[in-house]
Amino acid sequence: MRDFAAELEQRREAGLYRVRRQMSGPHQPLLTADGDPVLAFCSNDYLGLASHPELVAAATSGLDEHGLGGASSHLICGHHGEHHRLEDKLAAFTRRSGALFFSTGYMANVGVITALAGKGDTIFSDALNHASIIDGCRLSGASVRIYPHGDTATLAEQLAATEGHKLVVTDGVFSMDGDIAPLRELATLCRRHDALLVVDDAHGFGCIGPQGRGAVLEAGLTEDNVPLVVGTLGKAFGTSGAFVAGPPLLLDYLVQKARSYIYTTAMPPALATASCRSVELVEQDEHRRTHLTRLINRFRSEAATMGYDLMPSATPIQPIMIGDPREAIRLSGELEKRGLLVTAIRPPTVPHGESRLRVTFSASHTDEQLDQLLAALRESAPKIVADRALSSV
Ligand SMILES: *Cc1c(COP(=O)(O)O)cnc(C)c1O
């Protein structure tokens, strides 16, 4: 048998071992982690809706009215009116013909990619795409061509050199860098080379675009240019589940062929009830996005003056680049000593040599909480920056 214990030990030595902290209480910036109070800057609850009383109330009334369990898959008897109502709302929210509700974003990506490309086809995938896209590509049996991050010139060459059915897939907002894909160029290329474009905007929906309608609409693109968008409800929407939105033909095709849609139990209808309310809050409450933008801008201008290496991101994802995974853990530890929870992101989630602290902001952070983060970063900065200078000589 393989020496699993030795492999884990190697991981530990390389600074790549992962642990789970146990949280208690509702999700919000002030959490209890393993029994200690912490101020967290690492969740994806970008609009602070995860514990919003109106969503909790909607879920509670959904439970009273519709019970708890999903009971079966959507194609047997699990497709509830509440799921359908949510799909209609998501279609309207994304300004698309229709939407299909999946259990998770992971399953949506795997389902969409494996259904729409297979043996003999070619998938073109950005080098920094999310793991669920990578897994969908691998499972599909199609040949996969990775293009360098955001590099539309290389993608154009690859597309021109390829025959047959082509699918291009990209994150909208990239989950670990926080930058946005060159969507207009991608849409133009896909049209020119008759390729199907799929954009996974898990981190864009709720945060960017008009009324939070995402990166594709922000770029002025519609269903005509970008046939399919994928979104999760587990991030800015503050609930759980995911969706694919686009034209009826493709959605119908997915209902017939996406195995991660077909062979799983439908989510609790009450969750859809809460998500319906969440879509309304996301659309209506502009003040959350305004506050979030202010926090992001303040953080960027102040952290940069401390010598930290930031990425060109205007989204709530604000990585502090470190490089070595052990150094990333050390800075994360320095912050934790000061009561802050900011997780170190290491390979294989990011490329080797690109370990980082992934700082994320939520509309539920106050200015005082941002001050706390900045003060802790200021105290930890001299050491980190000096160490970086040393390791580069
Ligand atoms: C989080 C994420 C997903 C997965 O969504 P879940 O609903 O959490 O499974 C998919 N794509 C991207 C880009 C993500 O960041």
TrEMBL record:
Which keywords, in A-to-Z order, does the entry hold? Biotin biosynthesis, Pyridoxal phosphate, Transferase
Q: What class of enzyme is it?
A: transferase
Family per similarity comment? Belongs to the class-II pyridoxal-phosphate-dependent aminotransferase family. BioF subfamily.
Q: Does the keyword Transferase apply?
A: yes
PANTHER family per record:
8-AMINO-7-OXONONANOATE SYNTHASE (PTHR13693:SF100), CLASS II AMINOTRANSFERASE/8-AMINO-7-OXONONANOATE SYNTHASE (PTHR13693)
| Ligand binding (substrate) | R18, H130, T349
Q: How does it assemble?
A: Homodimer.
Supply the name of the protein: 8-amino-7-oxononanoate synthase
Cofactors: pyridoxal 5'-phosphate
Enzyme Commission code(s) on record: 2.3.1.47
Pathway per the UniProt entry: Cofactor biosynthesis; biotin biosynthesis
Record's function text:
Catalyzes the decarboxylative condensation of pimeloyl-[acyl-carrier protein] and L-alanine to produce 8-amino-7-oxononanoate (AON), [acyl-carrier protein], and carbon dioxide.
Task: Give me the reactions it catalyses.
Answer: 6-carboxyhexanoyl-[ACP] + L-alanine + H(+) = (8S)-8-amino-7-oxononanoate + holo-[ACP] + CO2
Tell me which residues bear N6-(pyridoxal phosphate)lysine: K235
The organism encoding this protein is Marinobacter zhanjiangensis
Q: Which one Pfam family would you cite for this protein?
A: Aminotran_1_2
CDD domains the UniProt entry points to: KBL_like (cd06454)
Q: Any idea which positions bind pyridoxal 5'-phosphate?
A: G105, Y106, S175, H203, T232
Q: Which intervals hold domain Aminotransferase class I/classII large?
A: 38-377
